[in-house]
Structure formats: C-alpha cells, structure tokens
Recover the amino acids of this structure.
C-alpha cells in the first residue's frame, strides 16, 4: 500500500469518526424527533464510510464490504422512511388528542 493510499484511508476514517461524533451529539442534544432521526442517519453515514475505508486497505478493494454498504444503504433508507412515518403518526395523534381536550374544555 502506497503512502498516498494510507493517507486517504486515514482521512476517510477521520471524517467517519467526525460524522459519528456529530450524529451522537445531535442524538443526545436535540429534542425534535425528526432532527434526532437525521442525527441517526448521519451516524450511519459515518459507519458506511468506515466500512468503505476498511475495504480500501487491500490492493483490489474488498467487494464484500462494498456489497454490505450498498445493502446497508437500502436498509437505512427503508428504516428512515418507516421511522419518519411513525414520527408523523405520533405527532398527528398528539395534536388530535390536544385539540380534542381543548374542545371538551370549551363545552
């Protein structure tokens, strides 16, 4: 492995760690569920970047890790869509409950 390849792997790993830390910070600090979902997706991007960096360690890149990343992306998109629908349903349910209680108080 050349020095340039080693430096690029280190750069990828540093960016991946930064993404995971940024996502973890957002997950711990933010209160809005949609923003927390975005923070989880940022953490997932850092994980995928780590796997790609590890795949580049070998001279021909490891195709298994690349296939795992592509599969992980599909699963992450599906899980994000499902979580977003759950968040929106919970928000609608909460708004319906609060509007129903205020209507009962008005009568």
């Amino acid at each position: 492995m050349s020095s340039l390849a080693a430096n690029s792997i280190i750069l990828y790993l540093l960016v991946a760690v930064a993404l995971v830390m940024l996502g973890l910070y957002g997950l711990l600090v933010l209160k809005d569920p949609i923003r927390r979902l975005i923070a989880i997706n940022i953490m997932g991007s850092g994980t995928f970047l780590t796997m790609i960096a590890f795949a580049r360690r070998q001279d021909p890149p490891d195709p298994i890790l690349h296939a795992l990343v592509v599969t992980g992306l599909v699963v992450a998109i599906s899980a994000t869509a499902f979580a977003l629908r759950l968040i929106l349903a919970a928000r609608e349910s909460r708004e319906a409950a609060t509007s129903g209680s205020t209507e009962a108080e008005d009568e």
Q: What stands out?
A: The radius of gyration is 20 Å.
